[in-house]
Amino acid sequence: MAIIKPFKGVRPPKALVEQVASRPYDVLNSDEARKEAEGNEKSLYHIIKPEIDFPVGTDEHDPRVYAKAAENFKMFQEKGWLVQDKKENYYVYAQTMNGKTQYGLCVAAAVEDYMTGKIKKHELTRRDKEEDRMKHVRVNNANIEPVFFAYPHNDEIDAIVANVTAKPAEYDFVAPDGFGHHFWVIDDEATIKRITELFAQIPAMYIADGHHRSAAAALVGDEKRRQNPNHKGNEEYNYFLAVCFPDNQLNIIDYNRVVKDLNGLTDEQFLDALKENFEVECKGTEIYKPAKLHNFSLYLSGKWYSLTAKPGTYNDNDPIGVLDVTISSNLILDKILGIKDLRSDKRIDFVGGIRGLGELKRRVDSGEMKVALALYPVTMQQIIDIADTGNIMPPKTTWFEPKLRSGLVIHKLDD
Prior knowledge:
Layout: E1 4-5, E2 10-11, H1 17-20, H2 30-36, H3 45-48, H4 63-78, E3 83-84, E4 90-97, E5 100-110, H5 111-115, E6 119-120, H6 127-140, E7 142-143, E8 147-151, H7 155-165, E9 171-174, E10 180-186, H8 189-199, E11 205-209, H9 211-227, E12 239-246, E13 252-253, E14 255-259, H10 267-274, E15 278-284, E16 295-300, E17 303-309, H11 324-334, E18 348-352, H12 357-365, E19 371-374, H13 380-388, E20 399-400, E21 411-412
Parallel strand pairs: 6-11, 8-12
Antiparallel strand pairs: 1-5, 2-3, 4-5, 4-10, 5-12, 7-21, 8-11, 9-10, 13-20, 14-18, 14-19, 15-17, 16-17, 16-19
Helix pairs in contact: 4-6, 6-9
């Protein structure tokens, strides 16, 4: 059973939402944030990437930068750019990409569920990244940005959401990236109570995107519990901000690889080595996209190739062995190209499928990279199977799009 509760959201007035809302902190660097926030004192980047308020080159982990985040969060509230709702609500947050809309519920999720594994993860987290976000949560005493959960879809929850979203939205805008963002407030007590009851019947929730934010939020909540001699269990710090989407609405796109060299091999030797485990077919100069699971697209020296893994090179009964990222990591990147650790090897880089396969071609044609490999996207069911069996996905496996816009609603830990 998933424990959730409504909360008093801190959010921008309708007229300011487009100025405040931003992309998540981890999808752009400091220079890009500085550019996007230029001339906009109300941008959330002043809170989630406050290094932009310091001279170029200032370390984003400098203690002064974290302090600036808290100072700006306080200032946004004092100026009325962020205002706290008077009562506890749930919220619907919907996103539209390429004509398709997915509908999520903004909730306060239980720290306890994360700690006991009812909120399931499929990725490893890095301690340095956790610590960075923990400092950010501590200094603001708030979850400024939500995490992105999936849950097994439920017809009654879908019906409630459809009923809410039939009314005009509180926020409704198209962001500069072309994605639509729509937001409704659920303040009806009977509806709030029913949503809480329905989630209590859901066996587990799954982190889709935001493993570091989830870990940081839960760890700070747990820290506050241990530090409070009068802890009761109903304090706001026992919860953190999440947007929960039904698993059947989510869009996972490909996450592709580019490599700097062929590990000393010529093009011919590399293609010959591939033939041991793959059916290799030259597709010419037109972009070739993988057609199905266990089919890959390779770009090398101006030509596209289809690679189909031969039977026996994968295990469809193993949640990890079935993944194309496992097949390509073991049989191409490791065995032929000598790349053992995807997290640390400087010869490899990763390209989100949102950029298209043309980006792979560009990186290779420019001479920066020698070869590109495109993968068929992972399915939501594969993610659930991995999380349910306690396995961890290889690095850089999933890319969810669209990303949640930050700044539509914030969760304070003290109220």
